[in-house]
Design a protein that fits this description.
246 residues; Rossmann fold; 8-stranded mixed sheet; 8 helices
Length: 246
Amino acid sequence: MIAPVNGIDLHYDVIGEGEPLLWLHGFFGIGDDWRHIFASPPEGYRIVAPDLRGHGASIDPAGRFSFGQCARDVLALLDHLQIGRCRAIGLSGGGIVLLHLATLAASRVDRMVIVSAPPYFPEQARALQRQVSEATLGEAERAVMRARHRGGDAQIAALFAHARAFADDRTDVMFGPADLARIEAETLIVFGDRDPLYPVSIATELFAALPRAFLWIVPNGGHGPVFGPHAPRFVESALAFLGGAV
């Protein structure tokens, strides 16, 4: 489905029945990535899964990207769907979008789970961002990306350029304690203790700054420790949290 928002056609899927559950994928991802974690739509929820601006089928003709703009796009999508308040899961870049959304419109997010999402980019992440290059893609990896991102090689090149630009941006991902204190949603913070981008200290800073936070450090977990063998435990814990069990 398509929603015209903020000068682009935002592609999104709605799956399942029940309370709205917003799923925000990571950078380079697509909305359908929720299927790599949940074997089927979680019972009692209606998943709303957009392709963020410039990703998947949400092609941005202007070629601009910021996490803050993505949050405004998602807010417009919620308005389009007449969803006043939702629960949400944000993975990596999607978690950054969710932090923006929860500070822009605190009353719209009831409970949220943010996975491997920093309030700012530490220097170790910036060093890796500067090295991002599509030249490192093998043919098989490029074929997978072409299948996921409808704009083909031009869209893929734009995504890599955006990722490199993160290294020098000091405004889009820069949440201070006062910003985070505005978030009203109960928040489960999930971080791996072996994340090459963001050290565990980032997670503890978030935990200290968010007014209603819970913290789960995944032992031996890398960046986005919710896939593969970690998925069943994440599904169980995330759904219990979103359902108000903790």
